Structure to design on (277 residues):
């Protein structure tokens, strides 16, 4: 029997209660470590189809916010709603299965498997994951058919991210930038509605950086939504709209790049000064 909490979680918010086109709503999120408050009442909304930037100086609470949204850490308070459904407290795989995925600052490839194999592993609920379906004659053909389809999809995804020439290479041999492209390819094999990108360009050379940004914009044009943490302000200002600024665990302000760059509180936050909330 479902608990009251589970029932509430599955109940969708009506359109009158949430902003138009909102895909992600973060409401009064709280997270502390001992006596240190890392996230202090953070609230913001991400609209569908946008590339929204999330910026702030080191220690502002950006990564902790990401972790609480995606379930890799449990929030102490507040709520996270994805497509109108409360996902607060769900496990990372449960949230991912709903279409909300993330990347990490350090790519987490399976280093001793090929690039192609890494990508083919990404989709959920593959028939071959069941021992019975893998060995029983009545099911083997279905497993083979799905694997053939996944292989074709994987090649198309690798071509989209322009790393198909590396398909047979061990993932552990890739450069830092190539690993970021591989991680993006793996995420999109799972067919997400929204992706949280945690410093996707860190350690990426300019050529691969441009390639990755091109792919992000193309996917955004197709209707995918991104929330991006990035320390390169030029990248954020030229590619994100809107931009949310965090400082000392709180949302300081949000707006377009022109508003953000002219906001004295943002300037003070990045220079290390005291900021009036």
């Amino acid at each position: 029997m479902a608990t009251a909490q589970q029932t509430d979680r599955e109940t969708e918010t009506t359109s009158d209660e949430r902003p138009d086109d909102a895909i992600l709503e973060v409401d009064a999120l709280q997270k502390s470590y001992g006596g240190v408050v890392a996230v202090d009442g953070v609230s913001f909304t991400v609209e569908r189809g946008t590339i929204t930037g999330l910026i702030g100086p080191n220690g502002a609470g950006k990564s902790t916010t990401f972790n609480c949204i995606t379930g890799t850490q449990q929030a102490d308070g507040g709520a996270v709603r994805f497509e109108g459904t409360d996902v607060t407290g769900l496990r990372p795989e449960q949230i991912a299965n709903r279409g909300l995925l993330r990347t990490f600052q350090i790519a987490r490839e399976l280093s001793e498997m090929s690039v192609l194999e890494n990508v083919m592993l990404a989709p959920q609920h593959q028939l071959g994951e069941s021992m019975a379906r893998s060995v029983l004659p009545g099911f083997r053909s279905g497993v083979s058919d799905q694997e053939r389809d996944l292989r074709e999809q994987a090649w198309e995804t690798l071509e989209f991210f322009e790393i198909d020439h590396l398909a047979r290479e061990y993932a552990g041999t890739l450069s830092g930038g190539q690993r970021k492209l591989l991680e993006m390819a793996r995420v999109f094999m799972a067919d997400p509605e929204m992706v949280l990108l945690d410093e996707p360009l860190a350690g990426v050379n300019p050529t691969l950086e441009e390639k990755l940004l091109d792919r992000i914009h193309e996917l955004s044009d197709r209707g995918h939504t991104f929330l991006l943490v990035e320390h390169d302000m030029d990248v954020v200002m030229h590619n994100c709209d809107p931009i949310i600024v965090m400082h000392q665990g709180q949302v300081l302000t949000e707006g377009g790049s022109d508003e953000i760059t002219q906001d004295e509180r943002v300037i003070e936050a990045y220079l290390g000064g005291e900021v009036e909330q």
About this structure: The longest strand covers residues 22-33. The chain is about 40% helix and 20% strand.
